[in-house]
Design goal:
- The chain contains 3 helices and 4 strands.
- By secondary structure, it is largely without helices or strands.
- A two-stranded parallel ribbon has the order 1-2.
- The N terminus is likely disordered.
Length: about 260
């Protein structure tokens, strides 16, 4: 009996320790208090804080330091993070739907399986892994997400958007050079004047998308789908996988002198 009691006590203690370890550093109300007192000169210190799973929706973080914070599974929907440096934060499975991420810097981060629907990413600089995320209706106009080929000391660092839902997103003037976007859903998206030089777009879906004046030079387009896409002025020079791409070669493109 004493042996069983000791086992039960040990299990209870280990459970308490596990709960303590997994608990976030701050609650929502504690974060709100820090944000209330914060200013540009003295930002709220959330640097490297564990905020996993915390409801931080509809909060204004513009006067906060979130560098290196753990935001896995946190709810930041409709929050304002405009202009922040979010380099090295941990954001797997984060909910940022409807949030303002305009002009943010996000470098060396995993944001896989996140809800980024209706997010405002305008003017941002992102080199991160966003694979399998929902970015439907997001605003990525004028983003600078292309690989910087003059600064690659650790090998090719580029944004990863594999299997991302970008349906009906705004990508006008977006720089996504050398991005990897295999199986990405860009149906109905507006990519007018976007840069997709050397991007990996295997099996990407551009159905009903506006790709007018997009630069696809040297892009990989095998098995991609351009059915009913607007192709006016798009540059398909040196692309790979032309024969298996759907919706590219038709009477309209031939008459315009494309792919000859």
């Amino acid at each position: 009996m004493k042996y069983l009691t000791n086992i039960a006590f040990a299990l209870t203690l280990s459970g308490l320790i596990a709960n303590t370890v997994s608990a976030a550093d701050l609650t929502r109300s504690e974060v709100q208090q820090l944000l209330k007192k914060a200013s540009k000169a003295k930002p709220a210190d959330l640097r490297r804080k564990d905020l996993k799973g915390v409801d931080l929706s509809k909060l204004d973080f513009r006067n906060a330091d979130l560098w290196g914070a753990d935001l896995r599974g946190a709810n930041l929907s409709q929050s304002n993070l405009s202009g922040l440096v979010l380099d090295l934060t941990v954001m797997v499975g984060v909910n940022l739907s409807g949030a303002d991420l305009s002009k943010v810097s996000i470098f060396g981060v995993s944001m896989m399986r996140s809800d980024l629907s209706n997010v405002n990413f305008t003017g941002s600089r992102v080199i991160a892994n966003l694979d399998n995320s929902n970015m439907s209706n997001a605003n990525l106009s004028n983003v600078r997400w292309g690989a910087d080929m003059k600064n690659q000391p650790m090998g090719l660092m580029r944004v990863s958007l594999n299997k991302v839902n970008l349906s009906n997103a705004n990508l006008q003037n977006a720089d996504l050079g050398r991005a990897t976007m295999r199986f990405a859903n860009l149906s109905g998206a507006n990519l007018k004047n976007a840069i997709l030089i050397s991007a990996e777009l295997v099996a990407a879906n551009f159905t009903d998308a506006n790709v007018s004046h997009v630069d696809f030079t040297a892009a990989k387009l095998a098995e991609s789908n351009f059915t009913n896409a607007t192709l006016t002025g798009a540059n398909f020079d040196k692309i790979q996988g032309l024969n298996s791409a759907r919706g590219l070669i038709n009477n309209k493109t031939k008459s315009a002198g494309m792919f000859e």
